[in-house]
Amino acid sequence: MRILHISQNSLAFDQKHAPLASSETLREDLRYYFMSPCEKYRARRQLPWKLAVQILKIVMITTQLVLFGLSNQLVVAYKEENLMAFKNLFLKSYSGVDEDDYSVAVYTKQSVIDNIFYVLDQYSQLDQLSVGPVSYAEENRRLLPLVICKESYRPGRVESSDELLRLLVFLVNYRLVNVEISFTLKGINLQTISSHEPPDCYMFAVTITFDNQCHSGKVKITLDLDAVSSACKNWKISGTAQKNTHYLLIFDGFIILVCLTSAVLCIRSIVLAIKLLQRFSKFCLKKYNRKVCEDDQREFLNGWYVLVIISDVMAIIGSVLKMEIQAKSMTSYDVCSIFLGTSTLMVWVGVIRYLGYFQKYNVLILTMQAALPKVLRFCCCAGMIYLGYTFCGWIVLGPYHEKFEGLSRVAECLFSLVNGDDMFPTFAEFQQKNTLVWLFSRVYLYTFISLFVYMVLSLFIALITDAYETIKVPTQHA
Amino acid sequence: MRILHISQNSLAFDQKHAPLASSETLREDLRYYFMSPCEKYRARRQLPWKLAVQILKIVMITTQLVLFGLSNQLVVAYKEENLMAFKNLFLKSYSGVDEDDYSVAVYTKQSVIDNIFYVLDQYSQLDQLSVGPVSYAEENRRLLPLVICKESYRPGRVESSDELLRLLVFLVNYRLVNVEISFTLKGINLQTISSHEPPDCYMFAVTITFDNQCHSGKVKITLDLDAVSSACKNWKISGTAQKNTHYLLIFDGFIILVCLTSAVLCIRSIVLAIKLLQRFSKFCLKKYNRKVCEDDQREFLNGWYVLVIISDVMAIIGSVLKMEIQAKSMTSYDVCSIFLGTSTLMVWVGVIRYLGYFQKYNVLILTMQAALPKVLRFCCCAGMIYLGYTFCGWIVLGPYHEKFEGLSRVAECLFSLVNGDDMFPTFAEFQQKNTLVWLFSRVYLYTFISLFVYMVLSLFIALITDAYETIKVPTQHA
Amino acid sequence: MRILHISQNSLAFDQKHAPLASSETLREDLRYYFMSPCEKYRARRQLPWKLAVQILKIVMITTQLVLFGLSNQLVVAYKEENLMAFKNLFLKSYSGVDEDDYSVAVYTKQSVIDNIFYVLDQYSQLDQLSVGPVSYAEENRRLLPLVICKESYRPGRVESSDELLRLLVFLVNYRLVNVEISFTLKGINLQTISSHEPPDCYMFAVTITFDNQCHSGKVKITLDLDAVSSACKNWKISGTAQKNTHYLLIFDGFIILVCLTSAVLCIRSIVLAIKLLQRFSKFCLKKYNRKVCEDDQREFLNGWYVLVIISDVMAIIGSVLKMEIQAKSMTSYDVCSIFLGTSTLMVWVGVIRYLGYFQKYNVLILTMQAALPKVLRFCCCAGMIYLGYTFCGWIVLGPYHEKFEGLSRVAECLFSLVNGDDMFPTFAEFQQKNTLVWLFSRVYLYTFISLFVYMVLSLFIALITDAYETIKVPTQHA
Amino acid sequence: MRILHISQNSLAFDQKHAPLASSETLREDLRYYFMSPCEKYRARRQLPWKLAVQILKIVMITTQLVLFGLSNQLVVAYKEENLMAFKNLFLKSYSGVDEDDYSVAVYTKQSVIDNIFYVLDQYSQLDQLSVGPVSYAEENRRLLPLVICKESYRPGRVESSDELLRLLVFLVNYRLVNVEISFTLKGINLQTISSHEPPDCYMFAVTITFDNQCHSGKVKITLDLDAVSSACKNWKISGTAQKNTHYLLIFDGFIILVCLTSAVLCIRSIVLAIKLLQRFSKFCLKKYNRKVCEDDQREFLNGWYVLVIISDVMAIIGSVLKMEIQAKSMTSYDVCSIFLGTSTLMVWVGVIRYLGYFQKYNVLILTMQAALPKVLRFCCCAGMIYLGYTFCGWIVLGPYHEKFEGLSRVAECLFSLVNGDDMFPTFAEFQQKNTLVWLFSRVYLYTFISLFVYMVLSLFIALITDAYETIKVPTQHA
Predict the structure, then answer these.
(1) How far does the CA of residue C188 sit from the closest CA of chain D (Å)?
(2) Which compartment or compartments is the protein found in (chains A, B, C, D) (predicted)?
């Protein structure tokens, strides 16, 4: 609406000075260019194809995302429960909850040895123990071996053997850096059968690490699981299945098509806009001998089109990746989900553009546009203080408080404090052991919170209220 | 007060042009219609019946709700404690706290079998074990059986038998999907005796499920309890009781009566208003040949009456359901409480209407009326971005963060973040295992929180402050 | 400052019409009455006694409160640790943390009997077990007995005896309501010796309750401790002590004196003000035949004096109670602390009055005065909706969510939600078991939070910003 | 920009009245003095040395801080893990989590004796147990002894001996105040080897305290670890190392140099400013016979220079301390980190000054400058009420609520409540045991939160919005 306002001003200017035929068509084209889909339909009976494509795209991309998410949820749950099961099976004295990043911590030589033997014992009895359909993995009809790898300051490598006990007792001394036990199991996800899909087979690469790198008297035991989905080779599956995925592939293909159409339409619009701009600037230069000012030029470049094109490209890449995953030739779920997720986010944000055609609806966008430069400039200043506090808090309070351990954690902690979260725990976790640091922490926290919550946040409100006031007036008069 | 203002304008308009007798009575009726109860009393000495009925209704409905809630609290506590007791009795190695949605998780075949036998053992010794008044349920003088139901990919059903052990060992293999042990117990709630009411009898349908649907090596054991209140058949109860419920039924009946009265009065008012509107529009049409504009028409339709009628209908339905529950012919407590609760909420909200008669009190309502359309329009725009973030967060962060597991959970999590809750935990729970997703989560959370807390919330304040300003001026002048 | 403004207006009015001698002294007295301590000193060289007394009072009352609190902290810690020690000594399978309101819960007959015997065993070996200085209490040289009290639907009372086992097995059946074991121990708090004070002796009345009132199969075991401080009779204490308390008593006496002085001075001021008001109104009536308007009359009644007098009376009562506690003739610590605490709060709030004499400092008070009526009126309206939500939430969500169990808890939970606390946990604790209630809870929470956080809170800001604007203008001009 | 405005006013005043040669140079110098680095470069081609030094300083100080923090993180982790390992080795029944401030609490004589013997047993088998490189410490080739120290009301000291058991049984009676077992171990941090640095040796002074000071029947066991880094004497280290620290020392030296330069430049600027001010005031006195007003004088004293000098001095002290720590002649890490952290904070805050040269960027600083006096004055008033609530809450609620136990904790708790944190837990933790205190706590919390969140915080927003309005106008016109 602001756009129309500006362009009509310059056209009004045209009208007075150059009532020529060519200028008349240019004027018409310009007016048409800045119309909303609704007005275009009224003016030239042009059906809003682009709008229809966008709406179709929203529905399809969201459906695709939801389907993908739901199917993936089962896989994630399956992997997590397997990890849990392996931890309970192979780690002695595992309590069901991980400590920090590791599963179990042991402190005596005896318990290190016990834990190593426990793993070996449980591994050897696996088929009697486990309630799930797992068994030893094999390659070319030979069972894959269990590998024990030991790293110490005089490095050595020990394969699974019978004389193991004597060896291990000897090995667990203070020079020990790492013991790593790794083996591979195969499993089958029967869960999919209930939805009449063929089962997925998995290779579980289990790695149990006894970590003594810190040499602090605490050996951390971690169990890592790398679950790779693979085709089920030695399983005979009878019955109808596999079809469901065909429908999905067709759907994905259709999405790619829609996104391509949308992208092509937007690129065409941008090209047309640039041509129109060139005609307009030539006209201006010829008639009035003046250049089109930058602000007017910017009106021709529609940021929304750029957004839509980026979103389309991401959706296409995401869909292709998704098809690869479904064909099991790829497993990088994360990259795919980031592409799909971001494109969906952009598509939904793009809806605001169409809401903006209704005069009363685009307060949010206009206010944001008006407030953004001020807010960013202000964020620069506040950011300096924020950075200073981040560094200062990390170096001084890091050794005494869990939340100040890493730079990114400090930044997140301070960000949460600004928003009024987790304040009392942050205060309370400092124990009064070291009085100097305790005092410093009080000064640090009180000044930071007061400064940011009361000064900076209030200024944000002031800035945006101010921007809203400036927006409100033309909206009322227009 | 705004209502009066408008109608007096149109009446002032009447006065000048049509000083007729019929117009005079219409004018009087109109003026009377828009009066507050207090003014009506002064004008025609009409006692404010409707107001009195409303006040009586508030008192009675709130009393009813509190009595119902208190009596129900005991029942809920009884059921919960029974569930707890059964979990402790029948589930081996139950720690007192549930893991996720299930009570216990086991990981080895042996422990599955142990747990099944433990249930059977405890069930057979029930009368020696339990401290509560529970015993085996019977129907037609025959004890109800304990049923073990096993679902596997080759389904089978096993009734409780002596050769059970051999069978079970055979059964617990990877094809197992489900084992379900179900039995029925009867109990008696003696607690009510202390308040001189007859005891309630209960049938407890206990279902213990060993869930291996996921085939991930983790068998989840859940205990579900379905407690149904029933009449105590084989118990001889002596002494005076039962009277208390009579009083309650009379009270409920009286409430239904009051609500009916209130509803009838409101319907009458609406009918009168419509008639008055018809007279007024006829009059306008005849005299000035113009239609009554829509805004004026809307003044005649009082939204409060609609609210009161809905509230009355809900209270009546709720009271009827409550009487059914007390007569033990129904157990759907939830539906009843939703009807009663919602009607009470509406009745209390309705009080604001009477406060609104005092000029200074209706700032809240007027400001809300003024701000509501803007706020809703603005919510549309913000909602698009919100939806986009919800989908995007679910698909990308779902597998890595508990709070992003389901779409509704993501929406709740984001809503909490906007209000400054649980921010640090949301940040902190992402572990730096997957760097790409970790980076994405930071960008995602920082942009979302900054956008919504600093931009959107500040705009809310701006919108409502603005609405308040526009409201304030006429209030001061009126 | 606003006061002075008004009074000077009316005096200016005097001046023109009645230049009489008596009016002149009245004018002088009035002007003097409305002066600040500083101006009074400049005008008549009167030393600000009242101010000095107030400052002295702040210092003394705060000192007294801190001393009292510190000494009490030790006593509280002593009692709490004893309670902990008794729980660990007498309750079998006590884990160190209480479940809900009870210490341990048991579910089988055998464990009830085991727990009862454990208590008796531990009690009989107390001197071999406990590390603290506790022993069996005696009265008139006879040991106080251990009492076992059993309540069942056929009530009976059993004294500690040898045939106990047979009896108990018989007793623990479903008719059992309560078993209560109570005994008394004596202890001595040696901790005070280190600060050269005489030790305090304590009588510990221990009550262990096996609660089966609910008859739900869950027997809750609670241990209650009633610790009464008493004089140490059979202990010979040598060395210097007791003096410290003398000083404290003198200090308390001095505080009472100061508070009395302050109260008397304030009452005198109020009396003088009333006399002055009478003179002024007589004068007005005689000269101009008009009454003093209510607003002017209110200027004479200084609310601060009332605050100071209430605070003084509370401080005096608190100090007397404190002396009683120190003399060990009373133990109601709570009443005393409430009196002392509230008086200290008022004394500190009273400081604002003196800050208000500096023109720029009294923004807070003036804005609050201006905003208070609007805020209260607005709170009425919001309160209705709040009450409605409270009742509705309690009845519907109570059985499904811990936070909605009691009416006061619901109110607190909603209050916290309005302030952005604990939002996600409130959402997340509803499990999707009952879909209808789950849906209701979402609608309930989203509407409540949106309404209150975005509409009501923003209106608060609008109201107070508005009040501040009206205050600011006269402040700048004055 | 405001500075320039003011000084140009006075110069404009100069220009009209005194067109002399000396006044002309003064004017030139003044104008130059108030220029930004950019303008100075344009005017006299002077390169912005000071700016360059500041930028260099920011980069270097931040680098130094990050390096120092990272190296220290390893040391802190090493110490913490050692503490954890010792607790697990020497404390019987240690659960992995500390209770309050102590590690384990025991309640019976037997368990006290068991725990003491456990320590001795584990100590004697240390080399068979521990997985870390620790061994008994020795001094002058003699092993350092394990010392058991017992404090009771008849004090005694017992050295480690064979007849220990009989003795201990005798000792653990109610007169016991403290048993302290202390011994020294030596360890080596091999972790540094991986980064090709020489290993650090540590002396661990372990103190295990059995604390019975309270005589409440609860003996608290704490393990304190004092880890002192020392040179590795009896270790032969081969290979290249030590160089890395050389580079670090050179880097630190360079930082000291830069900071010195920066401080000298700033002092020079201040001296120049004072001289200029003297010339200006002499000139004013001579020409117009008037003094330079205080506001104008303040313009000459640049607060930023003072900030930079303080920051430089702190950075220098911090760097020196850091060099001492690296040379292992000092261990006071905290003092060093406070100096380095604070100087880094100041350096980053100082960046805002340069942003302030861009007209649109200094909104934050100007608004803060404008709002600060009002905010501080207002904080005074609010602070009084806050203090009152703090004292009142401490004395009344202290014995019943963990968060109200100490004065500083109450202040922190109330501060968190104002910011909307931890509200529900604060409400919920009060149990309804003592009805009077429970009621008081509700009144206390509701009034405090309502007052501060709705009145005081809204006023903050009003104050700062107001300050922003006053700032905004000249910014737009300038």
Answers:
(1) 8
(2) Cell membrane; Endosome membrane
